[in-house]
From TrEMBL:
FMN binds at residues 10, 16-18, 96-99. It catalyses: N,N-dimethyl-1,4-phenylenediamine + anthranilate + 2 NAD(+) = 2-(4-dimethylaminophenyl)diazenylbenzoate + 2 NADH + 2 H(+); 2 a quinone + NADH + H(+) = 2 a 1,4-benzosemiquinone + NAD(+). HAMAP family: Azoreductase_type1 (MF_01216). It is an enzyme of class 1 (oxidoreductase). Residues 3-197 form the Flavodoxin-like fold domain. Its cofactor is FMN. Belongs to the azoreductase type 1 family. Binds 1 FMN per subunit. One of its GO terms (molecular function) is oxidoreductase activity, acting on NAD(P)H as acceptor. This is FMN dependent NADH:quinone oxidoreductase. It comes from Ectopseudomonas guguanensis. Gene3D superfamilies: 3.40.50.360. SUPFAM superfamilies: Flavoproteins.
Length: 199
């Protein structure tokens, strides 16, 4: 039995293509792996605060010297990190906002990319500690960006995940969604076809 952690980051609850892709992923995965546990964390319904001095204090201040706010920030970071540590498969649903990922997803990453927990510094440089995990990234894009210099999603997420030891990463892009019906239908159909193969 594997544990699957799904991170939703679309600001929209209705009419969201990335959420549509996530629902198909979950349905396909459950059909192929009925014993697996799937946890969904929705960053729109439960926003994660952006990295600030309070969270840094929670990480770096000795426990006996922490303020109540720092303790709460550390507890939240620990919960998010524990969810990631316990997952065998990570699914990131990432609509493209202004050529990159939603700020809510960046905030989540800032909580879980933690020295000594998900990576460590060594004499030869940083080393990821989350080896053996798989990740799927489901994107929704108004234009067609894959492989272009305007795609700041895939390179960034590949680097961030590799930094913590997750190298087995598959991207599934639904592109051209705002380029008219023909492009939109084709982009969504291609993404759903790839999702059917993944499970």
């Amino acid at each position: 039995m594997s544990r699957v952690l799904v991170i939703e980051s679309s600001a929209r609850q209705q009419g969201s293509v990335s959420r549509e892709l996530t629902q198909q992923f979950i349905a396909n995965w459950q059909a192929a792996h009925p014993a697996d546990q799937i946890q969904v964390r929705d960053l729109a319904l439960e926003p994660v605060p952006h990295l600030d001095a309070t969270l840094l204090g929670g990480w770096m201040t000795p426990s006996e010297q922490q303020s109540e706010a720092e303790k709460a920030a550390l507890a939240r970071s620990n919960q998010l990190t524990d969810e990631l540590l316990g997952a065998d498969v990570l699914v990131l649903a990432a609509p493209m906002y202004n050529f990159a990922i939603p700020s809510t997803l960046k905030a989540w990453l800032d909580h879980v990319l933690r020295a000594g927990v998900t990576f460590k510094y060594t004499e030869t440089g940083p080393q990821g500690l989350l080896t053996g995990k798989r990740a799927f990234v489901l994107t929704a894009r108004g234009g067609i960006y894959a492989g272009s210099g305007l795609d700041h999603q895939e390179p960034y997420l590949r680097q961030a995940l590799a930094f913590i030891g997750i190298h087995d990463v598959q991207f599934i892009h639904a592109e051209g969604l705002n380029m008219g019906a023909e492009f939109s239908e084709k982009g969504l159909a291609q993404a759903k076809a790839k999702l059917a193969e993944v499970a």
